[in-house]
Amino acid sequence: MFKSILTAIMSAILASSALAENEFRHVVLFKFKAEASAAQVKEIEEAFAALPSQIDSITRYEWGLSESVEKLNDGFTHCFLVTFKDKAGLESYIPHPAHEAFVGKLRPILDKALVFDYTAKKD
Q1: Domain CATH code at residue 102
Q2: I need a labelling partner for 24 at 20 to 30 A (CA). Which of 15, 88, 111, 114 fits?
Q3: Contacts of 15 (CB under 8 A, 6+ apart)
Q4: Confidence (pTM)
Q5: How many domains does the chain fold into?
Q6: pLDDT at 9 over 80
Q7: How does DSSP classify residue 107?
Q8: Residue 24: which residues within 8 A CB-CB, separation 6 or more?
Q9: CA atoms within 13 A on the CB side of 38
């Protein structure tokens, strides 16, 4: 099932993103706890969307909700794609105080996360 989810994510990314050689991509999927309220989830969506204005190493950001026709999302509802000029951008993003504050808000309502990082290739 993991392979199917990952294949779908990668296909969507390649289809919707202009590919620049060697950009570094950070794909994050969230599955929230059953008791997470709609308001709490909305707060996380807004907090994640605010990170590009707080962290200079982010060059592009997008997100969306699962619309899985095949129903292979394994309960993951949210996908976030964060792009950096290079891997060093991600390495400065992870310990950034704004990212750490975001993770602090997220943890209490997060059931599971899947993170996949890669360097963009054109071929």
Answers
A1: 3.30.70.100
A2: 111
A3: none
A4: 0.82
A5: 1
A6: no
A7: G
A8: 83, 84, 85, 86, 87, 89, 90, 117, 118, 119, 120
A9: 0
